[in-house]
Design goal:
6 helices, globular, mainly alpha, 77% helix, single chain
């Protein structure tokens, strides 16, 4: 249902109103989900959201929100690290541009 919602919402509405809320909610749920199928669906939902948000600035805003979790409580740090893995998958070779901000945050979150 969430995947269909992400695909069906007009992109301008998704970006302007809901991308941060949906992205943070999905990423936060990752740390709490024990079921492997549900985790895979959450991964797919977050990746679909990243693909739907065409505006690089809006996507960066979402990444900045996630970066704040690297120094939070354990569950938030776990969600951040898992989200970073999804970012690697989404960006592929382009992820190297994010390394200066993401890598130190991952080390902090894992400490």
């Amino acid at each position: 249902a969430l995947h269909a919602l992400l695909v069906d919402i007009p992109t301008d509405v998704l970006v302007s109103r809901y991308s941060g809320l949906i992205g943070v909610s999905v990423a936060a749920r990752l740390a709490q989900e024990d079921d492997s199928t549900a985790r895979q669906m959450l991964h797919a939902a977050l990746k679909t959201l990243l693909q739907a948000v065409k505006d690089e600035g809006a996507r960066n805003d979402l990444i900045q929100l996630l970066l704040k979790w690297s120094t939070g409580k354990y569950a938030l740090r776990l969600a951040f690290v898992e989200s970073a893995g999804i970012l690697i998958d989404y960006y592929g070779e382009r992820f190297s541009a994010l390394l200066p901000s993401i890598l130190p945050a991952v080390w902090t979150a894992l400490a």
